[in-house]
Fold:
Amino acid sequence: MKRAAPVTLAALLLAASGCASPSVIRRLPDPTITPPRPRISRAPVATPRPPPRPPPSTPLAGKVIVVDAGHGGHDPGALGVGPVPEETVNLGVALKLIPFLEQRGAQVIATRTGDRFVALDGRARMAEEARADLFVSIHADACPRSSVSGATIYVARGAGGASRRAAGSIAAALESSGIACRGVRKAGFRVLVGHSRPAVLIECGYLTNYHEARALGTSAYQARLAEAIAEGITDHFGP
Structure:
């Protein structure tokens, strides 16, 4: 007959409390111990690249434009009723037109940049030798009737399509900028017929009109004219 195993005090206490034996006790997690966080594998985030900068707008790139400030030196041009003679108005508009065209990518050749005289045939020869895509002559007009005002665009009487289209674009740009324009006319000016290149002559206004003469003598109005002319030239060469 086998001797019964001795009953320990711990076993009696567990039996009395209704608990299972130590071999079947489930261990609960210790609330004081923070379990390790699961390691999450994340895909690398690509850093977005800034959008490429658009190229500078150069719609006149590759174009050669001769800008001719009419008169100069011993030839003051029309005097009108204002304090500023035509030669000074022409040069002021031309010098403001040049950077507007260069900013758009054009190669600009000026017949004069100061108060000096250049013969008409010399101006025409510059356009021929440079094989200009456009010759632009800047002038101011005069009329016995002081009420006459507004800009006028001239082309040669036998002008080709390029000259006529350029004149039309410049006239439209002047009108769009709020500058009165009397339209496109034909004439036999030497700077228009003395070479074979496309050409326009712009009479920017009338120095014999009191209000227009005052405006033409100001730098602000000259800049306004120059910008409108540049817009017209750009429209002419645009797509």
